[in-house]
Design goal:
- This protein is an alpha/beta fold.
- The chain has helices spanning 47-60, 96-106, 115-122, 139-150; strands at residues 33-39, 64-69, 110-114, 134-136, 154-159.
- Strands 4-3-2-1-5 form a 5-stranded parallel β-sheet, sandwiched between helices.
- The protein is globular.
């Protein structure tokens, strides 16, 4: 058995320097936009929730933000999540996606979800999407990226399979 070296850090102690920020705190200038494109499997890692938190941060920095969910990420917009009943929290963090998407929409962000991936791949209907989520055609995904490019908007793209 290996010898453990050092002392355990007491609860509440910082183990890294959280105050040393290297880059400037960039805020949006009037009219600036940001698009976050997410293709990830819900609950299969931290990518989904981290990107939603980043999306929320972009809104709070003043950007006009669009979150585009496609592929398995469209499942994040499900309004029928819950156990044993819709809306019930089965375990801590179970409703994080719904809660964070609602925060994004409540704070002015737009959320789009691909109706192809929702319906054809996962059997989720548009009526099963959270209120406020805008269902889009699969060809809208590329056109959203091209729109962002033409608008000279900040783009963040995440793929996770």
């Amino acid at each position: 058995m290996a010898d453990i070296v050092g002392e355990r850090v007491p609860k509440g102690s910082a183990i890294v320097d959280y105050d040393d920020k290297v880059f400037p705190d960039v805020q949006a200038e009037a009219g600036e936009k940001a698009y976050v494109f997410m293709h990830t499997v819900p609950f299969e890692g931290s990518v989904g929730i981290v990107n939603m938190l980043t999306t929320t941060r972009l809104i709070r920095k003043g950007f006009d933000v669009s979150l585009v969910l496609f592929g398995p990420a469209s499942l994040m917009a499900s309004a029928t999540r819950g156990f044993p009943n819709v809306g019930d929290v089965a375990f801590p963090g179970h409703m994080n996606y719904n809660n964070q998407l609602q925060t994004i929409m409540d704070e002015g962000g737009k959320v789009y979800a691909c109706r192809f991936s929702a319906a054809a791949l996962y059997g989720m209907r548009e009526v099963d999407m959270m209120e406020g989520v805008i269902p889009v055609h699969p060809r809208d995904i590329a056109d959203a990226a091209l729109t962002a490019w033409r608008e000279k908007a900040f783009q963040m793209n995440t793929w996770n399979l």
